[in-house]
Amino acid sequence: MSYKFKVICLYFSLLSGFLLMLQPANGQYNFSVVDDMLQKNQKILGKQVVALVWKDGKIVYRKETSEEFTGKMQAPIAASGQWLTAAASMICVDEGKLSLDTKAGKLIPILAKYMKAYINLRHCLTHTTGLEGEKTGMGKLLPKSKFESLEEEINHFATKREIVTNPQTEFYYSHVGMNIAGRMLEVANRKTFDRIVQEKLLRPLKMRSTTFFNYDNLFINPSVGAQSSANDYMNFLVMLLNNGMFEGKRIISEKAIAEMEQAQFADLPVKYTPPGTEGLHYGLGAWLMEEDAQKRGTILCSPSFTGTWPFIDRKNNYAAILLVQSPSGEKGKEIYAQFKAAVDEALGL
Fold it and tell me: What is the mean predicted confidence (pLDDT) over 127-154?
């Protein structure tokens, strides 16, 4: 072997070693800590769980604990659908169909008839309408099939729900505001809520397994009636993390994303908030798990504390979701905290 050939071999060996050191960090991620967390909580989470983590432009972790329940499978996501409802509302704001200051009574005359015209879209998306909500407790927040349409439900709110306080004076988590917002979108667009969300949000995001239409009970509920898959919801999270962009296309304006992630009415007294959200501020459709000095969310989550935990971490530029088909407990924030901590450790944060 010639001296020149040996030198060339040595050169390429050194170059290969250098390039290996420069490989993307995601190749070095160790998600065993997340696997352990899921295993330890199997009794609570059940046997059908999907966990996804997106970072560096791709999925860096995927865990499907059952062949019968994969990232493509649809499951009820309950309150996690409120993030979708808020996003669809902000798309309509971007389009000029309505604004956050648009009064509900302008679009829904029966609310004006019963002295509830003053409620605006922002009040609806932030649980500050001042109208009587459901009785407290997680069981009271599950979707019901009492009404055949949003129009019928909002007519009921107009005639039967009492005015407890002026809007924007206290935070009371309930179905009322989000469902009024859904009806406002229907009137402004002259289409059903589910069709609006499909056309403006779900199809552009390739969320083919997501819907607000419940085929079992035949009702549409913008507050807690959504069904989705882990793969679908991750597309939504990635769009948020990319400030409204998805696969090179603008879905929502940056201004709208910023508004969604800003703490709304942070100084109001809290009349009722779901277990696990105590002390947290609310944006539009999502909770601010952490925020900066300007009360802008740095970590945001829209959980259904009975089985879906999606979040984005702007500080570390990643998104994750834990989706459970049939949870057997209500550990809520505790499970979210364990999952988030495990993912952070896996990513070396």
Answer: 76
The pTM (predicted TM-score) of the whole model is 0.89
Residues sharing a CB contact under 8 Å with residue 27, sequence separation 6 or more, in sequence order? none
CA proximity to 84, closest of 167, 188, 176, 207: 207
Please report where in the chains the tokens 């500080």 appear, as a residue.
315
**Cα-based distances in Å from 73 to 79, 81, 233:** 18, 16, 11
Report which DSSP code applies to 99.
-
Question: Could you tell me the CA-to-CA distances from 198 to 134, 168, 267, 280, 297 in Å, in that order?
Answer: 28, 30, 35, 30, 27
Q: Sign of the CA dihedral 146, 157, 223, 205?
A: positive
Distance CA 283, CA 11 (A): 56
pLDDT at 217: 59
How does pLDDT run across 189-198, given as a tens digit for each residue? 999 999 999 9
pLDDT band at 5 (very low <50, low <70, confident <90, very high): very low
Torsion angle, CA of 294/300/305/306, rounded to 10 degrees?
A: 160
What is the C-alpha separation between 265 and 268, in angstroms, rounded? Answer: 6
Identify the structural domains of the chain with CATH numbers, from first to last.
27-346 (3.40.710.10)
150: which 2 tokens? 């949003």
Q: Which residues pair with 319 in a beta bridge?
A: 54, 312
Tell me the two tokens of residue 128.
């500050």
Residues in the chain: 349
Residue 21 has a pLDDT of 38
The tens digit of pLDDT for each residue in 90-113 reads 999 999 999 999 999 999 999 999
Neighbours of 46 (CB within 10 A): 18
